[in-house]
Every structure is written in C-alpha cells, then in structure tokens.
Amino acid sequence: MNQNNNAVILECGEILCSLGNLQETIADLFEGFSAISQDSCFGVPVSYAPFKKKSWYDLKENTKILASSIDISNINKEETIFIFCAAKGDISPIEKYYEKKEQSEYLPLLYSQAEYVKNILELENCRTIVISNACASGATAVEVAWEFLSSGKAQNIIIFGFDAISRFISTGFYSLSALSQTKAKPFDANRDGLTLGDGSCIALLSFRKPYSGDIIVAGGGSSNDANHRTGPSRTGNGLFRAAKMACENANILPEKIGAIKCHGTATKYNDAMEAKAIFSLFGEKIPPCFSVKGAIGHTSGAGSLLEILIAAECIKRRLIPPTVGFQILGVEENIPVSSSSQHILSKTVLCLSAGFGGLNSAVVIMEHS
Amino acid sequence: MKNKIYLSSFSAILEEGIYDDSGLKNWDKDQIGPQDIKREQVLNKPYLNFGKLSLADKLAFSAASLSLTKSDYVNKENMGICLGISTGSFSTDCRYIETVISGFPSPSIFSATLPSSSITDVAIYFGIKGPNRVCANGLDSGITAFELAINLIEFGKTDSVLILIVNSIESVDKNIPLILPEIPKNNFAFSFILTSKKPHISPAFAIELKIKKTNKLMNNDNAELYFKEFINSVLLKKDANIKGVWKTFESEIILKKEE
After folding, report:
1. Is A122 left (phi over 0), alpha (psi -120 to 50) or beta?
2. Which alpha helices (H) appear in A32-135, and where do they start and end?
C-alpha cells in the first residue's frame, strides 16, 4: 500500500483447466479430486490433465469464455495495459504447418497469439506486453503489473495466460525424463515426475483504495538460479531470494504468512529445492504448504497466474486444499504439506513459482480487512 | 524524487560490425555479419557451449559478454536481466519440431525452446542472479525490456540491470512462409547495463525514459535504428533525446551527460 493508502487490487479472475472453471476447480480441489488421466499425452505414454472440455483448447473459444468472466466495460482502455503470459502458448500451429502445410489463424509466436486474444477482448488500442519467463511467466506478469500500477504508469492491467499441451510439449518433457507415468505426487516420497496440464486464465488488476474483502497483490520478487538449463538449483537459494524479495517488497515479515502455495511440480529435484527454499525463509515455523499440480497438472507459464487465482479463492474461504497425490513426506526438510483441507490463520499467502533456466518468481497476496 | 539511473556500459552486434565503448570494429573478411560471430571476438577464454548455442542465444551471450567486460559494476549476484526478443525462440522451435517429426525428439534442442533460453547461458556463465524479465512482444520488445529494467531499479529490486535486445532470423525459419511479415530479416543484438550508482567513467550518462500512450494505432519504428541512435549519441559523448513510435505508444530516452 502506498502513502495514499492505495493498493494493487486483484479485481477478478477466472480460470479454465482440467477440473473446470475456478469454482468447479476449487470444489474439486477441496474434495481431493484429480483430473489427471493415466493413458497418454499426445502419443506419449504418460499421465495428462487435459482441458475439461475439448473446445477449450481452441484459443478463440477459450478467450470468449474467459472474457465473459470479467467486466471491462467501465475501465479506461486508454490507460490499460494488456499482458499476455505464457511459456509456449499454443505451439500447435508449428506442428500443423510442418506436418500438413496448414496455416492457423495465428502464428506459433506468443505476440501473434497475444494480438489475437486482444482483438477478441476488444482491447485493440491497448498496449501489449508479452511476458515469457518459462513456468514462472504468470507470477512474473503479476509482478510486472504491480510495478506498472504502483508507479502510476497504468490504471488497469489485464493479464491473460494460455498454455496448451501439444505433441511439441509432451515429446520434449518426455525426452527429458521429467514426466510421471502415473500422476504427479508433489513432495511425496514416491514422486516420479510431473504431469502436464492445459490451463488458461484471466485477471483484472487495478490501483485504488482497497475495501474490506478485496484481494491485494502486496508485492513480488524474482531471481535467477544461474545454475542449469533445465534443472533447479540444489540449494534452493534462488527461490529463497525471490521469496525474500517478495516479502520485503510487500513489507511483510515471513511469520505473517498464513500459507504457501508451492510450485510443487512433483519432480524429484524441484520439490527438494523448494523445500530448502521454504526452510531457508521460515526456519522451523513454516506455515501450511500446498500444491495443486497433483489435481490439475502443471499448466506451465499460465499456471503460475492460474494458481495465484486459486490461492486468492483459498484466502476468501480461509482454507487451503489437500495436496492431491501427497501421502508421505519425501523431502529432507520437515515442511507441513497439506494432506487434507485446513484452515489458515492469516489471510496472506505466499505464491511460489520456478521455471526452466532457473527463473524464480514469488508473489504475496492478502485479503484487505 | 526518483534516484538517477546511469548507463554503465553497452554493446551492439550489427550488420556492419561490433560496437562497444571504443567504437565500431568491422567484421573480418570471412564474416558476413552477426550470424558469423566468433567466441574470441566477445570472450577472451574458451567456452565450449558457445558453438552449440542457437543464433539468438549466441547473440544475447555475445552482447552480454561485451558489455559486462566493460562495466565497472561488479555485484552480479544482484544484477537483473531484462530480455527483449522479438521472435522468441522461433528458430529453435522449428529445429525441435523437425526432430519430433523424424521420430527422435532432441532433449537438448527442446531445452532451448523457450524465449527465456537466451538469458539462461548468460546467467549461468556470468553468475547473474537478480530478477529477470523476458518480453517477446514483437518489434517493441526492446523498448519494453528497457522500461521493465527501469521499473526494477526504481522499485529497489536491484541496483543494476543487464538489458538484452535480440532479433534473429535463421535459415530454418525460411521453411515457414507464415513468419512475420513485419519482423526485420537482419540479425542484431544490443546490450545495455543500467545502474543506480554513477559509474566511474567520464562522461557518465544519466538516463530517463518517458512513455506516452498514443490514441491511435501507429506503425512501429525500426528498433535497430532506434537503439543505434542511442549508442551513437553515447559514442559522440553528447546529450540526446531519442524518440520512437511503437504500435500503441511513443518512447523517449533522454541521455544527459555528467562529467
């Protein structure tokens, strides 16, 4: 919050993923359901969490549904920035071209997809920024939005995230031996890799005086591991620095955090790294931790925004969901991973994300009271 | 009042040659342009991965290496990186999908199929651990990366940022006729290091960036010429107001000399 008591407000948001929209996803998460199927993912024999409805894979259809969830009729579009966030977005046009010489309505390039979505949203004159910080894209987009809004460089920011799985993605992760054959089991002793999932989401952020019940983006931080192209740092120091920066930027002490929305991919090294980062920041007093990737899969660059929207909904309910797939703690640090839904004492959640190439991002969100 | 932001060093890899603070060095006779850049032109010790990098990654690494060598800023643990890359990882994407169709998907190529790939090797090799921003906006990616870098310094998230601006088109892209009519077909890279501390060079240049929203859609300026004007002003040691027009906004970089 600044001197005028204004803050960056998460006005509204909607998601589409394997469990459905936001409310359907929340309901199923608290029931401990998983949408992960265990047959194949674009010809690769691994688990997968596809969009709940096939039509959602279509970027136009998907955008129309998400657009209907936010009211932008009253915002000043001249002072609005549109941020498109994705790791690869929809890369299937490149497959179509190479295999069938077919062209799509948009190019296999993020900015082309951003313009396509922006036109459907009728935001043609808005400035576009495409953020592609690997799997931390969504959280980084929220951080970027916070900076633009807090400095008065924009009045509103609309963030749109879309990452759909295709043969390009599934074969790539399979070639890296990163995928689970069964399903993602975050932080579990028997975890054997991540499950890919489709995801898209939209959020409207603005800068104004907050009212009771508003969700505030209090601050964010990011860092680079400077360690490895695909693997995370073994020490967790990069994610720790991002989380520490987020708390400092939000002017919040770690002990005021009520829960941690973990990146929790369920790969051996990510979860071990993340546990170390969390322990480094909180010591022995770690708040409850949860990951949603055992239920909806890893929705890539869009996922870190999608999961922030889920975390915002958890704050409103004062509850965090069980970490689907988690049974026995399989990391060295004794972090309290949720195995059932549980109440949170503080209405502040730290959201962690980590991407390929060691790109980390952390965002602190809280309910204003 | 905002703290001042300074230019610590810069480099550019363009069709005519390589620029740094000592001016332009033309390409050798056996080199056509940026696509032929050699490791020994940008780094004075062996780096085995250099030859394996995609062109975009190689240009980003080279531009970063040149400006990091010249900068007197030493705390790389805190330095941020902001990358503006017009076409993302398109060439590598083309290369990867060819391996998928051949039946042997390549994990090493796949690991570079992200726009953020171009900062990974820079961060690892030089130990740069601060905040990162990757913009793949098309033609205004560079100026956006510049703006995000200034935001990072203004909010105190770091006291220095390495800005990398890359445009690369490889022969593999030519397999795809649908590529980007408006993206320039020449390869180039710029690198700027901005800091909140006045560097020990004379003259030092303080930098300010103004962004103004336009009310109508405009044609994009040429990003290469825009940033070339920037480095020419620095080389000539003169104040400058460098104005650019992008699709939905106008930019003005104000360079002010301080002895």
Report:
1. left
2. 59-67, 92-100, 110-120
Going by the DSSP 8-state scheme, the letter that residue A205 receives in this structure is E
pLDDT above 80 for A266: yes
Of B110, B137, B211, the CB nearest to A111: B137
Q: Look at residue B217 in the predicted model and tell me its pLDDT.
A: 83
Domain locations along chain B: 5-258
Domains and CATH numbers, chain A: 1-369 (3.40.47.10)
User: What are the start-end ranges of the E strands in chain B?
Assistant: 5-14, 17-20, 23-26, 80-85, 132-135, 160-167, 188-195, 204-213, 240-245, 249-258
- Which residue on chain A is closest to B135 by alpha carbon? A131
Q: Which residues pair with A289 in a beta bridge?
A: A260, A337
A31-88 pLDDT, tens digit each: 999 999 988 999 999 999 999 999 999 999 999 999 999 988 888 888 999 999 999 9
* ipTM for the whole predicted complex goes beyond 0.90: yes
**Beta bridge partner(s), residue B245:** B250
Element (H, E) at A156: strand A156-163
Contact (CB<8Å) B130/A224: yes
Instruction: Look up the CATH superfamily of B5-258.
Output: Thiolase/Chalcone synthase (3.40.47.10)
**Inter-chain CB proximity A131 and B135 less than 8 Å:** yes
What pLDDT does A63 receive?
97
Q: What is the mean pLDDT of residues A10-37?
A: 97
